[in-house]
C-alpha cells in the first residue's frame, strides 16, 4: 500500500464504491436537470397575454362569405371541379370540390395566404406551378384577379 500526499492510499474496494456512486449521482443530476428543463419549457410556452380561450361555438359558426359563393366558387366549379372531385383524377388531393360552396369553403381557405394572396397555393397551382393539370388561367385573367381580390379580403393568418 503506497501513500498519497502523505496519506495511505485507499483500498481498491473503497475506490470501487466511490466510482459506483458517480453514475448514480449523475443520473440524479440528469433527472433533476430534465425536470427543471421541462418546467421551464412549460412556463415559457404558456401564453398569459391572450386571455381566455375562444368560445368553441363561435368557431363552429358558419361564415357568411357571399363573395366566395357568388364570384369565386363558380370559377372553381367551372375550371377545377371536373378533376378535383371525388372519383376524378385529382380527387385524392387536398383540394376537392363537392358542389356545396359552404362545405368546400374551408378546404379552399386552407390553400390561400391572406397575408400574401399571390403566393397562395391555390393561385400558384392554377397558374401551372406544380400543377400536374397544367395552366388553368394566367395571372392577368379575370378569374385569377377575382380569386386574388377575394383572398385579400380574408382576415390575416395568425
Describe the secondary-structure layout.
Blueprint: E1 3-4, E2 7-8, H1 12-45, H2 56-60, H3 66-79, H4 101-109, H5 121-126, H6 142-153
Antiparallel strand pairs: 1-2
Helix pairs in contact: 3-6
Can you walk through the features of this model?
The protein is elongated and about 70 Å long. Strands 1-2 form a two-stranded antiparallel ribbon. It is an all-alpha fold and 158 residues long. It is 51% helix and 3% strand. About 11% of the residues have low confidence. It has 2 domains: 37 residues; 91 residues, no CATH class. The chain has 6 helices and 2 strands, in the order E-E-H-H-H-H-H-H. Strand 1 and strand 2 form a beta hairpin.
Q: Tags for this entry?
A:
single chain; 158 residues; mainly alpha; 2 domains; two-stranded antiparallel sheet; 2 strands; 3% strand
Short description:
This protein has 158 residues and is an all-alpha fold. It is built from six helices and two strands, in the order ββαααααα.
So what's the overall shape? Answer: elongated
Number of strands: 2
**How much helical structure, as a percent, in the residues?**
40-55%
Radius of gyration over all CA atoms, rounded: 31 Å
Instruction: Kindly name the structural category.
Output: mainly alpha
How many helix segments? 6
N-to-C series of helices and strands: EEHHHHHH
Poorly predicted runs: 45-61
User: How many angstroms separate the termini?
Assistant: 73 Å
Please, how many domains? 2
Largest sheet: 2 strands, antiparallel
Write down the overall mean pLDDT. 77
In percent, how much strand structure appears in the residues?
A: under 5%
Strand order, main sheet: write it out: 1-2
Amino acid at each position: 500500500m503506497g501513500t498519497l500526499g502523505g496519506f495511505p492510499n485507499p483500498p481498491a474496494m473503497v475506490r470501487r464504491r466511490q466510482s459506483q456512486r458517480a453514475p448514480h449521482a449523475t443520473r440524479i443530476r440528469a433527472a433533476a436537470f430534465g425536470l427543471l428543463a421541462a418546467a421551464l419549457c412549460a412556463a415559457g410556452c404558456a401564453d398569459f397575454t391572450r386571455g381566455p380561450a375562444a368560445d368553441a361555438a363561435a368557431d363552429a359558426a358558419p361564415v357568411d362569405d357571399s363573395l366566395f359563393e357568388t364570384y369565386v366558387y363558380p370559377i372553381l366549379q367551372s375550371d377545377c371541379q371536373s378533376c378535383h372531385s371525388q372519383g376524378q383524377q385529382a380527387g385524392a388531393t387536398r383540394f376537392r370540390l363537392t358542389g356545396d360552396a359552404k362545405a368546400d369553403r374551408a378546404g379552399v381557405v386552407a390553400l390561400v395566404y391572406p397575408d400574401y394572396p399571390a403566393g397562395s397555393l391555390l393561385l400558384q397551382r392554377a397558374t401551372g406551378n406544380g400543377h400536374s393539370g397544367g395552366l388553368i388561367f394566367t395571372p392577368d385573367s379575370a378569374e385569377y384577379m377575382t380569386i386574388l381580390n377575394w383572398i385579400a379580403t380574408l382576415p390575416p393568418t395568425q
